[in-house]
Amino acid sequence: MMCGKVIFFSCLVGFLAVFLSLDFFIPYREAAAAKLPLKLKSYFDDFVNLCSSHLEFLKYLTFSPKLFSKTEVKRFTGVDGDSVYLALLGRVYDVTRGRKHYGPDGGYHGFAGQDGTRAFVTGDFTPDGLIEDVSDLQLEDYLGLQGWQQFYEKDYKYVGKLVGHFYDKDGNPTEAMNQYLIKLAEAKSEKKKDQDDARRFPPCNSEWRQDEGTRFWCSTLSGGVERDWVGVPRQYFQPGRTYPRCACVRTTGPPSGQDDLALHDNRGDLDNPKLKLYDGCEPTAESCHVP
To answer: Are residues 30 and 111 in the same domain?
Structure first.
């Protein structure tokens, strides 16, 4: 008997959740709430929120991503007031509420009705640039694509998958998607290495003046890395980079990463072979001018 009551209550709440959450009912709901005593109004608001949460849960249980063909997605370009869809990494989003950006008169209309993933990070909005292939991008570009995907997941409605480059006819990831995920993981790993490297060798402050050239200097906050030492400017030949950057280098204590080293010369990282003194700069100077 109790089980039956629970099922009945669940169905009742489900029905009310759908009814109270419908857009056309909002004015009536607000009018009814305005006539209630303040204490009852708070209970009513709580009940409406409960219904809305129940509806979202029902949507979660029943939502099944639609599989779109490229021909189907091409229909959603916003022409004649129609809905606007775009795809990113094979995931299709309804961006109709952003019509001013993605509609026929919007600056990003080129993304409408197709998957132009590559253009999100290259800025090439020509037909040759609005493509799905991302196999030869720079590592940081994969992080950029992840950022765009997070944006659309948060701000727009996900409606399904695009069959083709990233997903097969059954909605399963293709080899192209697997390769993207591998590249993304590699990019995240490199980013972490760069962050660790920046903590070890913080970037210098810099400024340029026509009559003096470039000045590099160090402080306890240079490079956005807060620390209890200042350091001296050095050219840092970072592995995997073509050109050196200016880094602030510790001048005392053991070498970085060897804090437990009992015997050392108390010169910090000054003897690191990847570091070079700027021409004309004093070895212990906290500021250097470079013509």
So the answer is: no
- Residue 84 has phi, psi (to 5 degrees) of -120, 125
Q: pTM score, two decimals? A: 0.67
188 and 73 in a single domain? The answer is yes
Can you give the CATH number for the domain in which 108 is found? Answer: 3.10.120.10
The helix or strand, by DSSP H or E, that contains position 246, with its residue range, turns out to be: strand 245-249
Taking the chain, what is the end-to-end CA distance rounded to the nearest angstrom?
88
Whether residues 78 and 146 share a domain: the answer is yes
Give CA–CA dist 159/125, Å, rounded: 24
pLDDT in tens, 130-155: 999 999 999 999 999 999 999 999 99
Closest CA to 139 of 194, 90, 176: 194
Query: Is residue 248 domain-shared with residue 270, that is, in the same domain?
Result: yes
Helices (H), 36-171: 38-62, 70-73, 99-102, 119-122, 139-155
Give the Cα-Cα-Cα angle 90, 143, 101 (nearest 5 degrees).
Answer: 60
226 and 183 in one domain?
A: no
Residues linked to residue 243 through DSSP beta bridges, in sequence order: none
Query: What is the percentage of the chain residues whose pLDDT exceeds 70?
Result: 78
Same domain for 216 and 249, yes or no, is yes
* CA–CA separation, 110 and 126 (whole Å): 8
Domain that holds residue 261: 201-290
Q: At what angle do helices 139-155 and 175-200 cross, to 10 degrees?
A: 110
Cβ atoms of residues 235 and 244 within 8 Å: yes
